[in-house]
Q: What sequence folds into this?
């Protein structure tokens, strides 16, 4: 008790003593009949102010004694029996009043205590612990003052019980042997165990087995310590065990008191399963957003519009190379000057109240002082407060992502694309991309192959429109093969139909591939019509050569019989006079001569020696050849006009073969001009070639014939005159020399053969 | 050499051809001897040297060698060679081997006749040789 309180109490006690003594003296001095002893009520009432209820009763006892003494010694003016009865009645009243007042006082203090405890219990666990301590303290006090009424203990217990049972948290009290003495309703719910089952059991029952030993140690340590209460779990996780075997996390506070050498532990527990779950979820969300920022390499920032300060996270600080809590201007210090304005505009645009929740995504570059330039993607959203006209932007939240690597990859992809685009553009192959039998892409070369001018003429059309009908089955087969998984099909020859309806032989190779839009086929085409033509020609030439070889082998076998026929016809002709027979014999002779010519041509072809090509002055050959025909030219009244360029370079050719070519051409010219004409022979340089022209002013060759003049065994000459091999041989020779020959003719005007021969190096 | 009439040795493996030559040149009044192959011709020449030898070279025991050997034993007798569709190379080889004239079959009788006549006349007048080269039918 504090000294001031003690002092006042002492003062009160002194006053009461003085007053009581005065009343006693007065009572002694006054006659028995006077009821001045009733003045004892005054000090009695004063003692009722004492905090100790016992004082009142003690004083009442003193007053009874004094009243008895006073009655005994007072001068008797009335009958002592009457006075005794008065005094007994008065004292009984006094006792009654004292009892009532004390009772009332106690009830009031109980009521106040219960209310406070209730409030504390509701205030929370800490308060409950305090209340509990308070209750325990009062209980302890009660124990110590056992001499005071046991009723108080009972009341205290009731009060405590009320607190304990109404508490939201589980409260368990155990003794030092860990046997449960108290188990409240919240504990019943929490552990799913009735109090009557729990009381007397060991605390272990509500602990998972693995914690039991440690728990015991902790509790004993705690009991020995001088701390009276502590939050549990500071030394590790605390788990509870429900009646159904389920474990759950708890938050616990423990307190202990020692009563008569026995330690009592009181534990207040709260089931934090839900809270942990919520915390876990929150952590999960935080972790996810952190991971998202991390994975996206996103720097996050928040601009407070009112203060113009920006808070940046670590990555954003690294990106903007500034600290956090800087102004927007400072944050954008290293934004590339070219992008800065646009970015600022965007930032400002989000502030406009007519477009709340404005957000933007923008790319910009950062240009750091070291010259490094990096690409960023900035996404931001503005947040507003207020209503209607009062709507104001409060903050802009954004992320900034370094996309330099992506940009770089995009650039590389673009480059690569560009490369392939060019490759496709300049490819000598026609390239088509086909999806679902339709052309979705065609390069320039493909357009050229198909004779198209615009891509639209090809793109979008069915593949089957573009290829010849005969190829369709094979194409379908290949398409299904490619779409079925085979990567590349072997090269095949097919025939396309050009825009103008003409057909063209192409070589086709195709490959299957798949992209986002599904499987497709890449087709590469090459014009092989020229190669085909060459192959055809080669085949023909080979055929003639073969024929020549056969003819050569047959020559001897044929020669003698032919000679016999010829000779016999001539022999007979000299011996018959009959004209009819003579004519018949002449026919025989002519026919043998014809066969002989054919055979000689064939043999000439077959016996060709390998040409010995070297630098050759073509002019000399021409002049020699013309010289050989001088007589026949004159006979046929053919004038020769030669325009031979003196400066013309030598050609790379075989002299004999050139001779043969000229002889054939001059012979043809003579035959074309049976009634005379002009033979023009020209020679001049044409680029890397030497051009030789042999022209006549003869009858000319009709167009349908001129295309066939180089075909073997094709002749227009009258029966018996031509072999049909002359121009074939000429063409063969020229082509062997890597030259070319062409024939042009105008009917009635004449024919011109133009030969191009490579000049010698 | 027989009195007045020159002797011509005709060598060919084809009977019809020999027959034709005999008939074709008959009118000139020559004396004909025949052989079917090189060996036979050789024997015939060894027995009696003719005034002219008209021979194919694609024969059994024939070829350019055959002309060589023949020329060795008859240095002054004109040798006229005929062969079916012979080419220039054969012609050159044959003439170098000693043949006097060369014809490629089929040959016109008239041409042959005039050549033979010319050679025999020349042989009769002098021992001077004249090389006559003729092409066959063109």
A:
């Amino acid at each position: 008790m504090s000294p001031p309180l003690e002092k006042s109490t002492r003062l009160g006690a002194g006053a009461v003593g003085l007053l009581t003594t005065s009343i006693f003296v007065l009572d002694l001095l006054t006659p028995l009949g006077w009821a001045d002893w009733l003045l004892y009520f005054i000090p009695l009432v004063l003692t009722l102010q004492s905090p100790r209820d016992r004082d009142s009763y003690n004083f009442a006892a003193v007053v009874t004694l004094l009243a008895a003494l006073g009655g005994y010694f007072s001068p008797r003016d009335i009958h002592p029996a009457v006075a005794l009865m008065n005094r007994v009645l008065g004292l009984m009243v006094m006792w009654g009043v004292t009892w009532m007042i004390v009772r009332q006082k106690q009830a009031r203090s109980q009521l106040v205590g219960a209310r406070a405890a209730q409030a504390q219990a509701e205030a929370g666990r800490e308060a409950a612990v305090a209340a509990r301590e308070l209750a325990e303290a009062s209980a302890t006090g009660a124990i110590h003052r056992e001499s005071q009424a046991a009723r108080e203990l009972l009341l205290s217990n009731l009060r405590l019980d009320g607190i304990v049972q109404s508490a939201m948290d589980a409260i368990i009290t155990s003794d030092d042997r860990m046997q449960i003495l108290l188990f409240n309703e919240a504990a019943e719910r929490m552990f799913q165990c009735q109090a009557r089952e729990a009381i007397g059991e060991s605390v272990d029952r509500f602990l998972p087995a693995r914690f039991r030993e440690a728990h015991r140690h902790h509790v004993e340590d705690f009991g020995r310590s001088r701390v009276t209460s502590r939050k549990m779990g500071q030394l590790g996780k605390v788990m509870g065990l429900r009646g159904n075997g389920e474990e759950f996390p708890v938050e616990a506070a423990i307190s202990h008191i020692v009563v008569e050498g026995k330690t009592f532990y009181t534990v207040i527990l709260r089931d934090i399963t839900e809270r942990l779950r919520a915390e876990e979820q929150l952590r999960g969300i935080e972790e996810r957003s952190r991971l998202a920022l991390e994975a996206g390499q996103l720097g996050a920032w928040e601009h407070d519009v009112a203060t113009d300060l920006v808070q940046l996270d670590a990555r954003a600080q690294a990106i903007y190379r500034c600290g956090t809590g800087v102004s927007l201007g400072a944050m954008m210090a290293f934004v590339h000057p070219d992008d800065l304005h646009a970015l600022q505009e965007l930032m400002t645009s989000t502030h406009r109240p007519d477009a709340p929740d404005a957000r933007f995504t923008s790319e910009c570059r950062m240009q750091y002082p070291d010259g490094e330039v990096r690409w960023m993607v900035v996404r931001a959203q503005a947040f507003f407060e207020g209503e209607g006209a009062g709507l104001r932007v409060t903050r802009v939240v954004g992320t900034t992502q370094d996309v330099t690597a992506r940009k770089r990859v995009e650039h590389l992809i673009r480059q690569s694309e560009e490369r392939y685009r060019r490759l496709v553009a300049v490819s000598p192959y026609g390239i088509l991309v086909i999806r679902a039998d339709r052309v979705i892409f065609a390069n320039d070369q493909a357009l050229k192959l198909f004779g198209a001018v615009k891509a639209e003429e090809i793109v979008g059309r069915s593949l089957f429109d573009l290829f010849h009908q005969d190829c369709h089955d094979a194409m379908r087969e290949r398409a299904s093969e490619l779409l079925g998984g085979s990567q590349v099909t072997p090269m095949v020859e097919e025939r396309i139909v050009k825009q103008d309806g003409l057909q063209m032989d192409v070589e086709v190779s195709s490959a299957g591939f798949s992209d986002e839009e599904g499987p497709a086929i890449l087709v590469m085409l090459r014009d092989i019509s020229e190669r085909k033509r060459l192959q055809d020609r080669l085949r023909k030439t080979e055929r003639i050569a073969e024929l020549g070889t056969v003819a050569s082998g047959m020559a001897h076998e044929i020669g003698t019989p032919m000679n016999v026929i010829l000779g016999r016809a001539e022999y007979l002709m000299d011996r018959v006079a009959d004209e009819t027979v003579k004519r018949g014999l002449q026919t025989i002779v002519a026919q043998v001569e014809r066969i002989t010519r054919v055979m000689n041509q064939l043999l000439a072809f077959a016996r060709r020696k390998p040409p010995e090509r070297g630098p050759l002055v073509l002019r000399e050959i021409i002049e020699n050849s013309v010289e050989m025909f001088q007589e026949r030219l004159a006979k046929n009244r053919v004038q020769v006009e030669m325009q031979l360029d003196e400066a013309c370079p030598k050609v790379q050719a075989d002299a004999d073969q050139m001779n043969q070519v000229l002889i054939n051409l001059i012979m043809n010219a003579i035959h074309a001009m049976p009634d005379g004409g002009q033979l023009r022979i020209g020679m001049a340089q044409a680029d890397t070639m030497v051009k030789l022209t042999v022209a006549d002013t003869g009858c000319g060759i009709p167009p349908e014939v001129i295309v066939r003049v180089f075909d073997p065994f094709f002749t227009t000459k009258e029966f018996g005159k031509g072999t049909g091999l002359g121009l074939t041989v000429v063409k063969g020779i020229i082509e062997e020399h890597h030259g070319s020959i062409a024939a042009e003719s105008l009917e009635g005007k004449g024919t011109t053969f133009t030969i191009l021969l490579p000049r010698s190096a | 050499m027989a009195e007045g009439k020159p002797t011509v040795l005709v060598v060919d493996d084809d009977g019809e051809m020999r027959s034709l030559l005999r008939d074709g040149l008959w009118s000139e009044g020559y004396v004909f001897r025949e052989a079917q192959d090189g060996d036979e011709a050789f024997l015939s020449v060894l027995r009696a040297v003719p005034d002219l030898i008209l021979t194919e070279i694609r024969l059994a025991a024939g070829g350019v060698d055959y002309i060589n050997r023949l020329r060795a034993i008859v240095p002054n007798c004109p040798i006229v060679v005929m062969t079916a569709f012979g080419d220039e190379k054969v012609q050159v080889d044959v003439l170098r081997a000693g043949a006097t004239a060369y014809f490629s079959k089929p040959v016109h009788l008239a041409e042959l006749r005039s050549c033979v006549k010319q050679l025999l006349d020349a042989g009769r007048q002098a021992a001077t040789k004249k090389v006559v080269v003729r092409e066959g039918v063109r």
